[in-house]
Specification:
MenaQ_synth_MenD, Rossmann fold, manganese, Thiamin_PyroP_enz_TPP-bd_dom, 2-succinyl-5-enolpyruvyl-6-hydroxy-3-cyclohexene-1-carboxylic-acid synthase activity, alpha/beta, globular, 3 domains, single chain, 6-stranded parallel beta sheet
């Protein structure tokens, strides 16, 4: 059997097993050494490939798609620094538990460490960030090697998706010539009627003794808080709100918790807790007896202060599989059980709850008072950043997604995204909290076909303008709302702002670029509203357009800082009256 047949059959069996293992989407970054994988994937009728030229953009595009679909997406690139450009997205996948399958082509062993072009050390290139790394064998087409290729493909999909999802990395050494022969008979080999490694995976659940012990401990308290941090389980919202209703206990719900939006009851959801907890005085008067948290640590920094200040109380963190996401450093009981099932099990325990109703009522009154201030439109002409987010969350269509950037964008979403009966999936790259790759991530989510709104700042937009090419190439429908305060607005809220001599150069970093020109270069529509009425119109119109639509809202960093501080001052004054 000659080299070309070995290459073709080996690669075809691997690719076919990816499809057999329920992989459907592959993002390819063009290159020469990856030709066997790229051509074979393009040839396979059950795989949908998308071509994204910039590797960093490609990786974040795959990441956004995987987050939205909640299943693995594969990446393919050539050898050398092409693979290195995937690294930021691999890191994000690790921390945000997002399944990716990274397939990097490589020079064969005889071309390594001798100065051959595009030959770098790709063995464990991403360190410990992947869940699994494997250096694939050189292509051969014997029966045992075709089974090996299928086994590794199936293992890659299973490993990426199972448990706490994450990235896997398979490195393929290919010798030239690199062109497969698709005229071979029985090209795709022998596929079983189920994946090579068929999987049956159950969910973790407390046994009866564990459940009763936990329930008895919780029932010994009077003032509790249920906290829902960033998470993506669609079943949690209904289960946790049912539990809260039974316990009559407030739920502090992060905007990425999937609890603020949907048809479930939200009477006990406290969405303004970030504004409430900004006052140290108020935090001191809201001491709970216990906190039980589902999902990751919330975005809110005031909540982090609150948790640290109450390190002496009973604290529980529920993880569906495993992990230690407790950055406050407090003594905490980790509960490893499926979150939704745990809520259902606790709700059906026989012993009645005896929690303090006045505690709940205090939180509800404060939440309403804070919302009254946050929903009040008090700007005359210019649109503030908070008002922009409020208008967006009101205008966003039902059954759609919001993908939000980091820094100020996610914090303003936390403050101004109120509960809604709309079905809105809220996504973000809160694993590593970086601002890179945001446009590509949003486009990846949009590629699934659901209406998608990306909210980000001008620095995040600048970091990933290359990503706009994918929107143009595939006519992806997305509305991008860019809050342009000409630099890093979040630094105005940090102590660095007091170092005036170097603040603008080191932290403010004004860009002074014309975003409209960039949008036009990629064939998108552009609007720059001047007030709230124009913003609402622009948003509503953007959802009717096909393809890329960008709405730019220009703000002033100093004015934004003062506006936020005034809001918080008003809220603190109002809330203290409820506690006096």
């Amino acid at each position: 059997m000659n080299h070309t047949e070995n290459l073709t059959r080996y690669t075809a069996n691997f690719v076919d097993e990816l499809a057999a293992s329920d992989l459907t989407d592959v993002v390819i970054s063009p290159g020469s050494r990856s030709t066997p994988l790229a051509l074979t994937i393009a040839e396979h009728s059950d795989l949908y490939e998308r071509i994204v030229i910039d590797e960093r953009s490609a990786a974040f595009f795959a990441l956004g798609m995987a987050k939205k679909q909640k299943k693995a997406v594969a990446l393919v690139c050539s050898s050398g620094t092409a693979a290195a450009n995937y690294f930021p997205a691999v890191i994000e996948a690790y921390y945000s538990r997002t399944p990716l399958i990274v397939l990097t082509a490589d020079r064969p062993p005889e071309l390594r460490d001798i100065g051959a072009p595009q030959a770098i050390d790709q063995i464990k290139l991403y360190g410990d960030y992947p869940k699994w790394f494997h250096e694939m064998a050189l292509p051969e087409a014997g029966d045992d090697m075709l089974l090996y290729a299928r086994a590794k493909a199936s293992q890659a999909v299973n490993t990426a998706n199972e448990g706490n999802s994450g990235a896997v990395h398979l490195n393929f050494p290919f010798r030239e010539p690199l062109i497969p022969d698709f005229s071979l008979e029985n090209l795709w080999g022998k596929r079983s009627n189920k994946p090579f490694y068929a999987k049956t995976e159950g969910k973790r659940r407390l046994d009866e003794d564990q459940l009763q012990r936990l329930h008895a401990e919780l029932m010994s308290f009077r003032k509790g808080l249920i906290v829902c941090g960033p998470q993506t389980d669609p079943e949690l919202a209904a289960a946790v709100t049912e539990l809260a209703e039974m316990w009559q206990t407030p739920i502090l719900a992060d905007p990425l918790s999937q609890v603020r939006a949907g048809e479930h009851r939200k009477d006990l959801v406290i969405e303004s807790y970030d504004a409430i907890l900004r006052s140290e005085n108020i935090r001191a008067q809201l001491k709970p007896d216990f906190i039980i948290r589902f999902g990751a640590m919330p975005v809110s920094k005031p909540y982090l202060f609150y948790v640290k200040e109450n390190s002496d109380i009973a604290q529980f963190v529920v993880e569906n599989i495993a992990g230690y996401r407790e950055p406050a450093g407090n003594e905490t009981e980790m509960i490893y059980a499926d979150s939704a099932k745990l809520c259902n099990d606790l709700a059906h325990c026989e012993a009645p709850a005896a929690f303090d109703v006045e505690w709940l009522q205090t939180w509800q009154k404060m939440n309403q008072a804070a919302k009254n201030h946050l929903l009040e439109s008090d700007s005359q002409n210019a649109i503030t950043e908070g008002e922009t987010v409020r208008c967006l969350t009101e205008a966003v269509p039902d059954k759609s997604s919001i993908y939000v950037g980091n820094s100020m964008s996610v914090r303003d979403l936390d403050t101004f995204f109120m509960t809604t009966p709309k079905s809105i999936d809220v996504l973000s790259n809160r694993g590593a909290n970086g601002i890179d790759g945001m446009i590509s991530s949003g486009l990846g989510a949009a590629a699934t076909g659901e209406a998608t709104t990306l909210l980000l700042g001008d620095l995040s937009f600048f970091h990933d303008m290359n990503g706009l090419l994918t929107a143009k190439h595939y006519t992806l429908n997305i509305t991008i709302v860019v809050i342009n305060n000409n630099g890093g607005g979040i630094f105005s809220f940090l102590p660095q702002v007091n170092h005036k001599a170097h603040f603008e150069a080191l932290f403010g970093t004004p860009l002074d670029i014309d975003i409209e020109d960039a949008v036009k270069m990629y064939g998108g529509t552009y609007q720059q509203p001047g007030d709230e009425t124009e913003l609402k119109t622009a948003l509503n119109e953007s959802y009717q357009y096909k393809g890329l639509s960008v709405v730019e809202v220009k703000t002033d960093r100093s004015e934004n800082l003062n506006w936020h501080h005034e809001k918080w001052r008003q809220i603190e004054t109002s809330l203290l009256t409820h506690l006096s």
